[in-house]
Amino acid sequence: MAELAPPAAGRSATPADALLADAVRKGWVTPPALPAVGVPPRQPVARLQDILSELHDDRDAR
C-alpha cells in the first residue's frame, strides 16, 4: 500500500535512520543516555617531533 500523504515530520528521510529506529524499538540497540554534542576534544598521542624522529630512525634502519 502506498502512502498518499507527505511523510510525517518525525519520520526519517533515509532508510538507515529508519533501520536504526526499528532496532532501538526492538531493543537490539540502546541509544546513549547523554548524546554527545559535537566532536570530542583531540588528545595528541605524541608530539610531531617525536613521530618524525622515530620515522627517520626507522628509515635509517633499512
| Share of residues in strands | under 5%
Distance between the termini: 67 Å
Model regions low in confidence, pLDDT < 50 over at least 5 residues: none
Tally of alpha and pi helices: 2
Compact description:
This protein has 62 residues and is mostly helical. It has helices at 15-26, 48-60.
Provide keyphrases for this structure.
62 residues, mainly alpha, 2 helices, 40% helix
Question: How are the SSEs placed, and which strands pair?
Answer:
Layout: H1 15-26, H2 48-60
What does it look like?
This protein has 62 residues and is mainly alpha-helical. It starts with 14 loop residues before the first helix and ends with a helix. The model has no long low-confidence stretch (mean pLDDT 83). The protein is built from two helices and no strands. The radius of gyration is 24 Å and the shape is elongated.
